[in-house]
Amino acid sequence: MSDFMTDALQEKIRRIRFLILDVDGVLTDGGIIIDDDGRETKRFDVRDGHGLKMLMRCDVEIILLTGRKSKVVEHRARDLDISEVYQGVWNKLEVFEEILMKKNVTAQEVAFVGDDVVDVPVLRRVGVSFAVADALEAVKTLDTKTYGVLVLDSMSHLWEGAIAAYTGRKTSIGGIPIQAWGALKKPYKEMLGICLNLPIHLIICGRQSPVVEKDEDTGEIGIVGTKMKAEGETPYEPHILVRMYQATQNGDGFVRGQCVAYFEKDRTGLFTGKSVVEPNFQTFSPILALLGGEQAQQEYDTSEQDAGLIKDPGEAELEKMNLSVGIKDDFLTRIQSAKSLAELQVVWNDLFSKDGNRFRYKTKLLVEHLEFLTQMKDEKKRILANELV
Q1: Which residues of 278-290 are buried (b: 16+ CB within 10 A; e: fewer)?
Q2: Number of other residues whose CB lies within 10 A of the CB of residue 39
Q3: What is the per-residue DSSP string for 149-202?
Q4: I need a labelling partner for 170 at 20 to 30 A (CA). Which of 45, 73, 104, 342 fits?
């Protein structure tokens, strides 16, 4: 038996009655071909179809859940005798919960395969989850004679995918054991190390995450800054650091709804501290000529650093913290993404939802994280209410 197929994982797989699949990047190679008439084409693998048919013969029901809408997906579903297809879904967790109620099953009886950041909430919720792991191989085989720029969009997605794909034993409070973090981080850090050493421009995108600290004098929790939501041990300082946001009101030269780029850092000195509305390539082109043609090589084998974590004291507390941070970040993203007061209420109700007599999330949150989410919910509620007015 391989290290991947542990006894615990085998036991989880035996319970599976439903397999839910994303489409683009899972059943396809992620590419979309559009002809001159606007017709969309996707490439499916016949071996995937054969595997799904075998699962169906074992009484595992297949469901497709995708963020895009395409006639091609409908045709492929009919070809495979898949009757339930949900397209155009961005809040996949909400639809997932509806599927559980409709099918009268628990999350532990469902497996899910995804490859994008919108899949992460479902990946964390199901009994067995799988994330497509193709980023490292794509970077290793990149032809730098053909391509001059590599865009990683997004690092948050890659890091959350790495965490969600973990299938090993969990701690008693549902966290990832500290001993497992080294192996979990290794391919992620290897990929980033390769990217940093490529002789081309590297653009790293990621979701914004607040830096939250408690005021030592007042004891109040507040946001003191922002950071990229990703693994936090990357020993690298970028040439240019840009924070993108959408203007929420008119003023300061901005119009509500405009995309604004604020230059936190620019080693050339041209843009540091400046804001640019609706940035494009022409915005950055004056900087490129000043960055130089050579990149310092980076060390990315940090296995000894990771191994040192295992010896740190307070393992149980660290595991509890990691679990709480994951839940906090997940719900913060959902709160910030809510488009209406009703959608915000659904998110908040989910935070306090129960599995039987036990809270799914609330009791796993540290007090300060729950207080922070409450503050963020109230602020989002205020913004949405103002938009209605």
Answers
A1: ebeeeebeebeee
A2: 10
A3: EEEEETHHHHHHHHHHT--S---TTSPPPGGGHHHHHHHHHHHHHHHHHSSSEE
A4: 104
Q: Where are the domains of the chain?
A: 1-131, 133-234+299-312, 236-291, 313-388
Instruction: Give CA 156 to chain center in angstroms.
Output: 5
Instruction: Give the pLDDT confidence score for residue 63 in this predicted structure.
Output: 96
Q: How many CB atoms lie within 10 A of CB 255?
A: 12
Q: How far apart are CA 117 and CA 347, in angstroms?
A: 17
**Average per-residue pLDDT for the chain:** 77
For position 84, what pLDDT does the model report? Answer: 94
What pLDDT digit, counting tens, does each position of 277-296 carry?
A: 888 888 888 877 776 655 55
Write the pLDDT tens digit of every residue in 138-156. 777 778 888 788 877 767 7
3-state secondary structure 352-378: CCEECCEECCHHHCCHHHHHHHHHHHH
Distance, in Å, from the CA atom of 354 to the CA atom of 304, rounded to the nearest integer, reads 40
Residues 1-41 have pLDDT tens digits of 344 455 667 788 889 999 999 998 888 877 777 777 777 78
Report how far residue 169's alpha carbon sits from residue 175's, in angstroms, rounded to the nearest whole number: 9
Element (H, E) at 351: helix 341-351
**3-state per-residue secondary structure call for 206-262:** CCEEEEEEECCCCCCEEEEEEEECCCCCCCCCCCEEEEEEECCCCECCECCCCEEEE
Burial tier of 388 (Cβ tally within 10 Å: 0-12, 13-18, 19+): exposed
Task: Please tell me the distance from the alpha carbon of residue 125 to that of residue 137, in angstroms, as a whole number.
Answer: 27
* DSSP code, position 44: B
Pairing outcome for strands 208-214 and 221-228: antiparallel
Residues 61-102: tens digit of each pLDDT = 999 999 888 889 999 999 999 999 999 998 899 999 999 999
The CATH classification of domain 1-131, taken from the options 3.30.70.1150, 3.30.565.10, 3.40.50.1000, 3.40.190.10: 3.40.50.1000
Closest alpha carbon to 260 in 271, 270, 268? 271
9 with 128: CB under 8 angstroms?
yes
Residue 19: what pLDDT? 95
Query: What is the Cα–Cα distance from 110 to 127, expressed in whole angstroms?
Result: 6
Look at residue 311 and tell me whether its pLDDT is greater than 60: no
* Token output for 216: 């030592």
